[in-house]
UniProtKB/TrEMBL annotation:
Pfam families: HxlR
The protein's name: Helix-turn-helix domain-containing protein
Keyword terms: DNA-binding, Transcription, Transcription regulation
Domain HTH hxlR-type: 2-100
Entries under Gene3D superfamilies matching the protein: Winged helix-like DNA-binding domain superfamily/Winged helix DNA-binding domain
Length: 112
């Protein structure tokens, strides 16, 4: 398996895209990010953040205070990746109707 394929899987995964997109706007604490994204389990968000941190896209800043505070931000590499992924997501949103029409036409041709 090509190394770039694994990286692509990380940034284009369901939760990877949403984490990167959210962090484009600002830094988040874990619970804030989970609420903002919605629908993601604690375990899956933790795994996604850890993977993105390992790949160099996300910076985890653990502050030595009580209660503990951890902030997540994009690294310069992460910001660049997030901008690319977000551009693809916006393109997809603009073409949802086109894809639906293509699917309908495909399905109609198969039924006939």
């Amino acid at each position: 398996m090509c190394p770039s394929r694994l990286i692509l899987e990380h940034v284009t995964s369901r939760w990877g895209v949403l984490v990167l997109a959210a962090l484009l706007d600002r830094s988040y604490r874990f619970s804030e990010l989970r609420r903002f994204i919605g629908g993601v389990s604690e375990k899956m968000l933790a795994q996604t953040l850890q993977t993105l941190e390992r790949d160099g896209f996300v910076h985890r800043d653990a502050k030595p205070v009580i209660p503990p505070r951890v902030d997540y931000t994009l690294t310069p590499l992460g910001r660049e990746a997030a901008e690319q992924v977000w551009a693809l997501a916006r393109w997809t949103e603009r073409h949802v109707d086109d894809v639906r029409r293509a699917r309908d036409a495909y399905d109609e041709a198969r039924v006939s």
